[in-house]
Amino acid sequence: MSKKNNKYICFGLFAANINGCIYKFINFVYNNQIKLSEMRINGFLMFLLILFLLVSSTNSFSQVNRVVPAKPIIQIHDSSKVDDGYLLLMLARTCSLIDRQGNVLFNIPGNLVSFFNFKNEMATHNGNSLAIYNKDLELQWKIPTKIEHELSITDDDKIMFFAEEYDSINGINVYFNNLACVDSTQKKTILWSSLAQRRYLMDFMMKDTSIFRYKIEGSADPDSVLFKIAPSLFRVRLIPIEMTSSNDSVYESGKNRELFHMNAMQFLPSNNSEKNNSAFKKGNILLCFNNFTDSIRSFMAIIDPVNFKILWHYVQKDGRGLHTPVMLPNGHILVYVNPTHGVPVSSIDEINPLTNEVIWRYNENFPNIEKCNLMGSCQRLPNGNTLISNILGYVYEVTPDKIVVWQWSAEYATINGPKFIYRAYWYPKEKLKWLEMGE
After folding, report:
1. Rounded Cα gap, residues 270 and 311, in angstroms
2. What pLDDT score does 270 carry?
3. N or C: which end of the chain has fewer CB within 10 A?
4. List of residues 6+ apart from 328 with CB closer than 8 A
5. Are strands 172-182 and 257-258 parallel, antiparallel or unpaired?
6. N- to C-terminal Cα distance for the chain?
7. pLDDT computed for residue 219 by the predictor
8. What was the pLDDT predicted at 326?
């Protein structure tokens, strides 16, 4: 017999004993002809006692049956091959900075965090605000803005992020991303808007028809293509009710749907590919369009920071989603690829952008990775290893030979059950030296 059944039997016996005591008490009252007023008082007190006992026992059972998350598990398989440093874990509602033994140095409010360069301050997305905290987690300043996915700090301490905005096109409510910048004066500047650039983006995508999942027909007007030829853009709820041979359609519009979905941004560092192609020169911007739709495939693009024209792009032609691409010093791009649209395989791909060839791939030993179709991050460490995280709550470091040398698993869980981690990012100890010095 299970422990759970034993507990229910014990509770039943307890309730029966209480019932017997009540019966004896009432019988005693009747036989000894206690005054009615005294009986009412004693009865009320007994009622309170019984209520207290029942509430206490119910709470006890709820405590017993509550799912208590396990503590984080640290597995160091080969400490000689682990790149020392600190890890920033971006969890559901908070971020934790830990060392390689799993010790939490401190927890940071917010679901996105980025550290300034060699300064004892950090930028966070806390609620609906961009907030700046010092090392003692004292709020320095904040401005209202809702950040979507990305938050990073440039070498000159400018804070870059995707700001979520709302508007309408032809009566269709949409929300979209702006590439925004906040400097030390707390001034917010919009550098680029997917709404303002939608016609350029659609025109570009129409020239490379591999981005679309089906043949483009009908009008060549970018807005027409956007709202008729590609009806199922992620979060743009334009559902075709009837499709005729003349390509006329009736659409059902939804509320505030997303125009284009971008999930990552990087200002390119110096890299070997810029020697052969100016598109990859330092300072250009790498963006990730993870449309995750039945109409448009995910793709990466490098844009000019002056006129924001697309200089290079890479399409994930098997239909899988893309997350957190990053340009490496060797001129390759490392990207997390999610399983989507019937391709049940995740992988970390290292791509040569000069040839679009995948020159290294890791998809071995992913914990339950076939279920991990959202989010995920990857980072190439100075020792050549790759740090990987996924939404199922795993962070691990693998060697170029694809051997796991370090692993952390989360204690946190989402509403739906699987463990959750948005991203993990490695920082060298030198960059966060103020933690040890107590400055």
Report:
1. 17
2. 94
3. N
4. 271, 334, 350, 380
5. parallel
6. 59
7. 61
8. 95
Residue 266's Cβ-side half-sphere holds a number of Cα atoms within 13 Å equal to: 21
* pLDDT 10s digits, 24-33: 544 444 445 5
Cα angle 322, 324, 330 (rounded to 5 degrees) comes to 105
For residue range 262-310, what is the model confidence (pLDDT) as tens digits? 888 999 999 999 999 999 999 999 999 886 556 778 899 999 988 899 9
SS (H, E, C) the chain: CCHHHHHHHHHHHHHHHHHHHHHHHHHHHHHCCCCHHHHHHHHHHHHHHHHHHHHHHHHHHHHHHCCCCCCCEEEECCHHHCCCCEEEEECCCEEEEECCCCCEEEEEECCEEEECCCCCEEEEEECCEEEEEECCCCEEEEEECCEEEEEEECCCCCEEEEEEEEEEECCEEEEEEEEEEECCCCCEEEEEECCCCHHHHHHHHHHCHHHECCCCCCCCCHHHHHHHHCCCCCCCCEEEEEECCCCCEEEEECCCEECCCEEEEEECCCCHHHHCCHHHCCCCEEEEECCCCCCECCEEEEECCCCCCEEEEEECCCCCEEEEEEECCCCCEEEEEECCCCCCCCEEEEEECCCCEEEEEECCCCCCHHHCCCCCEEEECCCCCEEEEECCCEEEEECCCCCEEEEEECCCECCCCCECCCEEEEECCCCCCHHHHCC
Contact present, 242 and 236 (Cβ < 8 Å): no
Residue 122, φ and ψ in degrees, nearest 5: -145, 150
Residue reference for tokens 């969890």 = 91
Q: Which amino acid is present at 392?
A: L
What is the layout of strands, in order, in the sheet containing 285-289?
262-267, 285-289, 299-303, 310-315
Distance of CA 337 to the CA centre of its chain: 14
CB atoms within 10 A of CB 28: 10
pTM to 2 decimals? 0.75
Dist. CA 177–CA 235, nearest whole Å: 12
Counting as low any pLDDT under 70, the low residues of the chain are: 1-72, 92, 170-172, 215-220, 225-258, 291-294, 341, 364-373, 411-420, 436-439
If you compute the radius of gyration of the chain from its CA atoms, what whole number of angstroms results?
29
How many other β-carbons are positioned within 10 Å of the β-carbon of residue 381?
A: 15
**How many angstroms separate the CA atoms of 57 and 28, rounded?**
27
Residue that is written with structure tokens 């490379």 in the block: 208
Q: How many CB atoms lie within 10 A of CB 431?
A: 15
Output the CA–CA distances (angstroms, integers) from residue 285 to 80, 221, 424, in the order listed. 35, 27, 21
